[in-house]
Structures are given as structure tokens and as C-alpha cells.
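Question (not urgent): is this output format expected?
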Amino acid sequence: MARRTAHRMIAAVLVPALAATGLALALTVGRGFGLSTRAAAAPASREEAHGHAGQDHAGEEADHTDQAAGHDHAGEEADHERVGLSERERETFGIVLETAGPGSLSFDLELPAEVRLNEDAVAHVVPRLAGVVVEVRKSVGDQVRAGEVMAVLESRELADANAGYLAASTRLRLAQRTYEREKALWQQEISAEREYLEAERVLEEAEIELRAAEQKLRAVGVSDECLERIAGHPEAMLTRYEIRAPFDGEVIEKHIVLGEALEAQTDAFVVADLRSVWIDLSVYQKDLPSVWQGQDVWVCGPPGVPATRGRIDYVSPIVARETRTALARTILPNPEGDWRPGLLVDAKIAIGNDEAPIVVPRDAIQRLEAGPVVFVEEAGSFEPAPVVLGRETQDRVEVLSGLSAGQRFVAQGAFELKAKMMTSGLGAHAGHGH
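Got this back:
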């Protein structure tokens, strides 16, 4: 009994080992005779193939499902690109429709410019005699009239000139009386002709001296009124020199104070008539053939100053070495004082017009990710139509393709329509969980 039990235990251990050894030997022999081991694995392969086929079929169904979902999503996006507006919304957005068609393109040359004082209406007011300032009646910003007294000096040179004028005037009066007496005596044959001729010569010399003294006073700015006052009142102050305004204008500079000793020809005031100004344009070398005298020009100033039309009055024949630009100038009226000297402004010169088959306002062009578009009306709603643009001006654009003649498009309110479309698209995407 014990021996039988031992045999059974040995068999339980050896049989599996021999079976594994036999299988390995059979595989080795089979490879030696060129037999394939695939047959043994065929059932498993068929099961795996069936499994893979199932997976492929499931993948194809998933792909079909994704494609169907994609088509639905694309259709939804196409719908989102169309925007329908009620009549009230059109009025709120300021939608204005126009019909596409031919138009004119006006090409402008834009140049930088500067407002400058009209130097033909600027005066440096200077004393013509040296003196000490005793009165200052005008300051910067004050308006002056032609001939108005701006300041008063006490001048020793003027005193000398006035004294010379008074002396010459007195000598002339004496010479006139002497001449008249000698002429009467000569006519009565009481005195010799020689004495009469001598009195005539002295009278002529006195007249010349008086004219010379008068011209000297006029040369330093003494008016006829002052000359009459000096001649009629010899006791009047001879040192008073008045600085007067040369024309109507505004004091823009003042270089004079009380008690200052001014030399002759020293700037005391600068007066400018600001009712007109110069606009100096900088013309680049490449633009010189497009600018000439007599050409119309529009000057655009800062906010609040309306654009003003002028005419090119001067084009410099010389190009500045430092800037490589030439000067062109126009004179603008400035009755309200809006054009302040020193302002930097823009100047536009019309250099030509051209016709194009399709022209739309610049505001009608909007930019999306795909490029420029124009909103066209289709079946009561609006959709963006991609367009190819051509030449452009400041306010109009040529459309080369994407918009046909006769199509109705949004000329005004396109930006508001674009914002409406984008916000509608964002809401729809949010609803789909994107």
C-alpha cells in the first residue's frame, strides 16, 4: 500500500515534466523539417482577428459619427456667420445699404507741414535813437493799432536833433525877413543889387538847412504832428522819443523794461498780424514732380480746427541738404486765430482721379480672421463676403473680386454688424461647450 502511494506521487511530478519536454522536442524537430507553428496558433489568431475586426468596425462607426457631427457643426457655423436684424435693430446700428458699382478714386499726396508766422506781416519794433525807457504802455498779448504809442524814451540825441531843427527854423525866419527888406530897398534903388543877391543866397541856404534838419527828425520817426508841435512850442520837451506800432497787430515779444538804457536798433517789441499765417510743407524728393505752384491743398489741423483749403504759393527750387526735402508754402487766412504758429499739421494735395469698376466706402471694409470682408444682404439677412482689395484712398477702396456690380452691401454700420456677428457666434459656441 505504501509502495503504491509512492508510485503515484512520482508519476504526478514526472508526467508534467516529460510532457513539457516532449512539446519542446516536437517544436525543435518541426523547425528542423520546415514545419510552421502558425497552425497551432490558428484558432487563437482567428479569435484575435475577429476581435480586431470588431474594433475596426467600431472605429469606422465612430469616424462616421465624428464626420456627421463635424458636418453639423460646420453647418451651424455657417448659420452663425449670417446675421438677421429687425428694422429697429437696423436703425439702432445705423445700417445703410448701397448698391455696388463703379466709382471715382481721388488720390492725395499727404505731406507734413508746420504753421509759421507770416513774415511779411511781422515787425521788429526798434528805437532809432539811443535813450532811457521812461514809459512802457504795451505788453505781450496786447493788440495795437498803427501809430499807437508803445513806449517812450528820453533821448539826448533827439534833443540835439530837435535843437538843430529849431535853430534852422529860426534862421529861416530871419533870412526871410532880411531878404524881403533887401528886395524892397533894391526895387526902390536905395541899396545895391549885390546886397539883395546876398540876402537871397542866405535865404536859400536857410531853407536847405531847415529841410535837412526836418529830414533828420523824420528819419528817426518824428511825425508831422510832432514837428508842428516843436515848431509851435519851442519850450516843449525836446528829449521825448515815442516808439510807435508800425501796423495793426498783436505784441508777441517784449524786450523792454522801465529804466533800461536802450541802444539804437535794439529790439524793443515784436508785433505780428496774425490774421494770416504761412503753412510750410516739407516735400520729399520723390514727390517733387507732383507739387507745383498754383495747386490746391487741404490743410488739416488739430482736433476742433476745420480743414482749410489753400493754394500753393511758392515751391523752393532748392532741396535742403539736412532733410533732403524742398519747401512748398501756402498762405491761409486766420481770422479766428485757430492756426497757431508752431503747430504741426498735415497737408493733402490732390494729384489725380481714376475710375474703378467697383468702389466702396472704406468703412464698409471689415477685417475677419480670413481677411477683408464686405457684408452683403442675402434673403433679408447679412453675411460676410470675402473680397480682394485694390487701390485705396483716404475714404474709398477699390474691390477687385468678391463683390459684383448690383449687389447690395452695408456701406455704413458694418463695424456694428461685425460686432453683432461675433457676439452671436460666441454665444452659440458657449452653448455647445466649446
